[in-house]
User: Fold these one by one.
Assistant:
Number 1:
Amino acid sequence: MAELQSLGISFPTPAYLAGLVIFTIVGYAAYRYGKKAERPYPKWIGLAMMLFPYLTPETWQLYLVGGGLCGALYWFGA
């Protein structure tokens, strides 16, 4: 473990992993709903929710963007 940290590699926190799983599952459900109901906003927001965790390195960014996308899904998908 110390060898990986000396190389600058660190493992994500449990909070980050929980957020990653939650936002991916919600994104998948939104994508499937949007595709089945032929509604473009839920489909594309769901796709963004599935992909954005790979672009956010910090836990607070994960929850900030995920919360924003959940709000957009509520606003445009409902």
Number 2:
Amino acid sequence: MEIPESFKQSSYAQAKFQHIVQWAQKNHPFYQRKWAESLPDINLLTREEILDHNDLLLNGHPVTGQTSGSTGIPVKISWSNERKSIEQKVTQRFVEWLGGSLPALKIIHLKDDQKGHEFLEVNSPVSTQIETILENHQRFGTIGITTYPTNAERLCQAIIEQQLDMSFIQRFGCYAEVFEPFQEDLIQQAFPNARIWSTYSSTEFGMIAARCPHEPDFHHIFAGKLGVEILDQDGRPCRHGEVGRVVITDYFNTHSPLIRYEIGDLAARGECPCGKIHFPALTSIKGKVRGALVHRNGERVPFTQLSVALRDIPGMRQYQVIQHELDNFTLRFVSHLKGAELEQLKSSASDQFYRHFGYTPAISFEQESEIMRGENGKFYASISYV
């Protein structure tokens, strides 16, 4: 077995990678079929492979999580109790980085077992969210908030517009979606005394990396449980600062092992200068490749720049870009504009597509009263089916 280059930099990573590979080859039917009789170079595991053989990957174990399926069929994953325990320890370590736990309100998509005053459904009206924050502070001493970046955006906009005093909030956290700089700016305006944290996580792996509390431009990878590779288009490790494909190996999931799984995200590796947390770091997390849009030349283009440009168009309140085919897009949007002003908004949007791609694809415009979140509570500003 040839050890991938990314794992040769650490004796721990190399040993853990070898162990899970050898275990899977000997004990797991999915990998016994994938690798047949010999163990060649360990090629990347794709989402398509999992979807084609998801039941075999589960190997008779109960489903404990599934991905959002925003651009297709969700991937189903199983974790053992041991793997769940490891995740709890990782979460606790991150809380210790922040200085310990605080009474917080979690405004998220709720599961059946998430009940009580510390939880609120993310699809609740913003007015209900604000009322709950204020009430929980008075009754339970709540001084922290956890939610998704897109919900933080609309919550903060309402607080700023209403000039509400949220200075009592000391900590504000975002996870589950890409966290954009403009969203952080809004949080700082609406919650001026809040320390902001964010994590990079997924259903398949749990918490992958967490923002450094000392150097916020970096996210430290939880390298004790995961091997994270950042690879270029040719499968070689990227240089520090170079954006590439995120490929992850879970060292401890023996129910449904994920070995060199290309999760569909883009990120860049970096060296955090904090000197206090001795884990490798990411310096840029761009989000889903599947949410990225595809250029005519076949390259996937991160949505971030176009997203910011669309957001800044006068009258644009909410938007979602859907790429059905290479040159076929739908722009769903919410706006109060009518008549000539509405046509100007559409023209401006077309101009931004041209600036983003270098050409203007076919764009269908659909004006909505509201663009709802998915069943998992998340909002997707871009979806590509290409």
Number 3:
Amino acid sequence: MKKQHNRGFTLIEIIVSIALLAIIALFLLPMSMYGIQFSRWNGIKLTAMNLAYSQVEWLRTLDYNDELGLNSIGYSPKGIVEEKLYLNEPGSDPKTIQGIEYKLLTSIYWESAESYNGDFVANAIKKADVTVKARDPISGKEKTYAVTGTLIAFEGERSLTSFIPLKIRVLTGSDFSEGAKNVKVIVNNQSNTMVSWGRTDEKGEVVFTDLANAVYKVFPDSWEEGDMTARPTGKKTNAGKEEWIYEVLLEVGGSADNSIDQTFYVDYPAYIILTGYADTLLNSAYCSLNPIYDPPEGQEADLDLGSSLKDLSSKKIWREWIYEHKISFGEDEYFFVEKDSGNLWNGSFEYKKGAVTKKELKLAYGLKDGNFIKNGDGTITLEVGFTTSVEGIDTMMFSIYQGDDEVDYSDVAITQAVSGQYNKYLINLKTAKNITSDTLSFVIDNKEADTLVNEYGMKLVQDRNYCRLSVK
């Protein structure tokens, strides 16, 4: 008869089993965490949608003429709605539900239409939309979770406005073909007192229906996306602190018999970032930033901007354009160069969708065209100038060209052209053959040398390391 033995698990088997369970748990844990995060994200989205729908339904209950509009001075259409409150409840900006903060933005617009005979009716219908934002539980960044809207018409007879409407269109995007939503457009009188303001709808349009006949200053002011600038239309000529402006003068009334249309272009701005330079230089160096721009036919605009380097760092720059630039500091002249390559900046900015462009630049100096003298003893003397005072000139390595031919030389002696000044030098040398040309090319070969610097640590810009020398 066979004897049976009941054996338990060995210690090794138990350890292997625990290890396998741990490995399985490691694989399942991320999926479990993702499931929890997705469930929370989905809950936030459902709550945001419910808030948006409830806000819209509440708007439908308001009196069309007296209540359905924003409660803000100058806003059109005017009403009792607080744009950032939920159902006008005090303390609901933000609206907190289960520890999550929800931010609402209610916008109400005039929706234009055409009458049965084809006339433009600016105040035929009111349109309302509600945007709800909250922080994403995964990234921690604020995100739009719900956008909903509706058209609300007046029930019964009413008299339409007798004013000539002003229709503003605001465009954005990489090719400026997209309507820019929720851009705040301001209408001022000629004394710069606000008369009216409104927000653009999803098509990038806003209509002003009750402006009396007059001349107004109209401009886009801000948008819900954050930092914004507009295509400049001119500049304020404050001495040394010029500023771009973005307004246009529009005459309401006059010969217009239907509506007045105006288009603006808006974008995230670009900024020039300069670091590591003394305030003495930044406050006193004057930068001229000149856009290469062809204005529309029949329009003229002086858009060349002058500013100190200190002020320039905080200016919003229209990044669609390419800019020529010149920087002067007393008699010195500097150039913007790419931070990494040291090459001359080409004046353009990178387009970043949905984000600000920050252009990190450095300052550099260059060579000036000069002269050379043929001496009676067979030597020549080069007069070479820089756009700033330069240290370490004794470490300079250079080449000379007569046409395409490099000129061999020896017995070099470098002296200051003017005693005490370090921006112009005389270079006396002996050449292996006679110089017959009236022009020479002078090229500094060690342009990246750390020794060839000015008092602010600037190096020679790589695209300005050569100059033309004319016979004197």
Number 4:
Amino acid sequence: MNRALKGVLWTLGAYAGLQLAARIIRRRWPEAMPASLAWLRARPIGMQLADVPAIMHALELERGQHVLEMGAGLAPLTGAIAEAIHADGRIVAIDAEPEMLRRLAEQVGDLSNLTTQAADPRRLPCPDGGFDRVLMGSGLGTIPQPDRVIHEAFRVLKPHGRLVVAEDALDLDFLPERSVVDMALRAGFVLCTRQGGAWRYVLVFERPAAPNFLHAPHEEHRIETYG
């Protein structure tokens, strides 16, 4: 085995070891990811960009809507949302780490309809029923008591508003689909559609006009699966 190949294998092994250690630590002590360690959860840019069309399809955005993005997110996605809702819409990006929001603002440039705010997603500084859409992109598992985050999403959504949750097993803080669905149903959401598979999925929930607590997922939900 030549030296170059050994170097590549050593690098991959070291990275895998760091990933495993980081996952174990974060399962035991889940907190918001410091901006300085964001590289640990980064995926190749091509894979990140592949998420954008699926998430945009799930959001079903319209001009003038108000969108809450929980987590600094991916700049191309934030930019696509801002463009879809036009200047008379509004996107609010919330993250517990101010540095992550600063980086997002640098990447997307000057968007007149984007507001960033550092806040605890378990206690959102937002009025009841103020948003048409809430997006959680691979950040739910970073937060202790993620069920409280889901309840906050329910509170800030308008009736018939849409919650979109995107998760990827390559993320350090990946949450299984079943866990997310259970939390959302307990909060009062109805599961509408799902895309993807067990290790990479996008879930779409609706906030009904009247809370639908503990509604069993097999009873009246319309579940569509995309490849």
